[in-house]
Design brief:
Shape: elongated
CATH topology of the largest domain: Rossmann fold
CATH superfamily of the largest domain: NAD(P)-binding Rossmann-like Domain
Number of helices: 18
CATH architecture of the largest domain: 3-Layer(aba) Sandwich
Helix content: 40-55%
CATH class of the largest domain: Alpha Beta
Strand content: 5-15%
Bound molecules: adenosine-5'-diphosphate
Number of strands: 14
Structural class: alpha/beta
Number of domains: 2
């Protein structure tokens, strides 16, 4: 029986290993993590992450060929294939601070593998890492090898949170990078035969190590760039009376461009896009390519601009002040169908509104109060460095309440900001909500999910990103 061990039971490691266990009954999969509480959650009824379909897969395999354990060394020692899916945060200090990836977790995982291994291993990079990390890991392993042979593979994960199980079951492609030596090719084949249990052969791509590492950064940079492109257009649409949905649809019908991932919004979030682009920028700078670095930096700048533009629009529409006004925030996760709040645009929008002294009432169906309060006290990049956290309690947090119902959140509010595209926000009883709000009642739709005409008929003043402006908003001061 082939034994697989995955180091890191996070958003990537957990779902990926669950699907491998489901599709390869003859493979034993053990997911290990140093976090006792995380492993306990994976072994409980309440999994540590929310993903549609994940519960069923885990329940089906757990205890049969899927295990979760804190006994990291034992399972690493026993495995034939070791996936490394630990966090690779952005460095907050030292060389490359604010841009470069912090490989501390990776390096300590590699040294531990070298310490405990007694047989040959295939070590697979699963977490996103900078180009050439595999080479560094290879050096750590081979210099401490005690005669054991290691093959390093790069197998970046392309799943999207919210659709992780669907993506894993039916991936666009599986990418495996390895050394172009006979041993390297054999290792690629061994991993390809695992995926080959359910992924068609023509979707399993083999490349060299560096292409695989760079492909992951490039794919995320391209995706984020599409969002920033359509968001940049949304600002121009508002200024000219064009409708960003119509523009995006027209643009997307060009088969060279394609229709997906062209929705204008308050901005992208998630643990990967910004981090991977910063990483890419740093690699470009280190390689003497400042023009390329600046090109990609602009994708992040437009994303920041989009968030502050949204806050400015809220404040300027409401007579240039939200001080003391109750604003309902519907949605906090960075997108629907996940409870993940890492880098969610809601953090910057809420901080912006709190900066203008608003009172916020926040509701998200999958994010609890502790998480929201923690996120609102974090500094940039803190979220990815749980061990560095300083306890902070800014007084503005007294202005925040977190509730478990959209109607409660909107009661007596002056305005509503929709920041996550949860389906349930499309079908709320907006007449009831309108009745219970202060007047004039505003809706700022950061995801373009509400029916603008219907809401205007009810009496709301509605702002939708990139759409022709409400006559009310046209008369308000220009937005920077
Ligand atoms: P991702 O979104 O990439 O899956 P996460 O932060 O959700 O990242 O998960 C990474 C996991 O890796 C965390 O649960 C962390 O505790 C774990 N981890 C980090 N370093 C080690 C290590 N040396 N050994 C075992 N687990 C580790």
């Amino acid at each position: 029986m082939v034994k697989i061990c995955c180091i890191g039971a996070g958003y990537v490691g957990g779902p990926t290993m669950a699907v491998i266990a489901l599709k390869c009954p003859s493979v034993e999969v053990v997911v290990v993590d140093i976090s006792v509480s995380r492993i306990a959650a994976w072994n409980s009824e309440q999994l540590p992450i929310y993903e549609p379909g994940l519960d069923d897969v885990v329940k089906h395999c757990r205890g049969k060929n899927l295990f979760f354990s804190t006994d990291v060394e034992k399972h690493v020692a026993e495995a034939d294939i070791i996936f490394v899916s630990v966090n690779t945060p952005t460095k907050t200090r030292g060389l490359g601070a604010g841009k470069a990836a912090d490989l501390t977790y990776w390096e300590s995982a590699a040294r531990m593998i070298a310490d405990v291994s007694k047989s040959d291993k295939i070590v697979v990079e699963k977490s996103t890492v900078p180009v050439k990390t595999a080479e560094a890991i290879e050096k750590i392993l081979t210099h401490n090898s005690k005669g054991i042979k290691y093959q390093i593979l790069s197998n970046p994960e392309f799943l999207a949170e919210g659709t992780a199980i669907k993506d894993l079951l039916n991936p666009d492609r599986v990418l495996i990078g390895g050394r172009e030596t006979p041993e390297g090719k054999k290792a690629i084949e061994a991993l390809a035969s695992v995926y080959g249990q359910w992924v068609p052969k023509d979707r399993i791509l083999a490349t060299n190590l560096w292409s695989a590492e760079l492909s992951k950064l490039a794919a995320n940079a391209f995706l984020a760039q599409r969002i920033s492109s359509v968001n940049a257009m949304s600002a121009l649409c508002e200024a000219t009376g064009a409708d960003v949905s119509q523009v995006a649809h027209s643009v997307g019908t060009d088969s060279r461009i394609g229709p997906k991932f062209l929705n204008a919004s308050v901005g992208f979030g998630g643990s990967c896009f910004q981090k991977d682009i910063l990483n890419l920028v740093y690699i470009c700078e280190c390689n003497g390519l400042p023009e390329v670095a600046n090109y990609w930096k602009q994708v992040i700048q437009i994303n920041d601009y989009q968030k502050s533009r949204f806050v400015n629009r809220v404040v300027s529409s409401m007579f240039n002040t939200v001080s003391g006004k109750k604003i309902a925030v519907l949605g906090f996760a960075f997108k629907k169908d996940t409870g993940d709040t890492r880098e969610t645009p809601a953090i910057d929008v809420c901080k912006g509104l709190l900066g203008d002294n608003a009172r916020l009432s926040i509701y998200d169906p999958q994010v609890n109060e502790d998480q929201i309060r923690r996120d609102l006290t974090l500094k940039k990049f803190d979220w990815d460095h749980p061990t560095h956290l300083q306890p902070m309690s800014p007084t503005s947090l007294n202005q925040v309440s977190v509730v478990w119902d959209a109607y409660e959140a909107t009661k007596d509010a002056h305005g509503i900001c929709i920041l996550t595209e949860w389906d349930e926000f499309k079908t709320l009883d907006y007449e009831r909500i309108f009745e219970n709000m202060q007047k004039p009642a505003f809706v700022f739709d950061g995801r373009n999910i509400v029916n603008t005409d219907k809401l205007r008929e009810i009496g709301f003043i509605v702002y939708s990103i990139g759409k022709p402006l409400d006559p009310w908003l046209k008369d308000m001061p220009a937005v920077a």
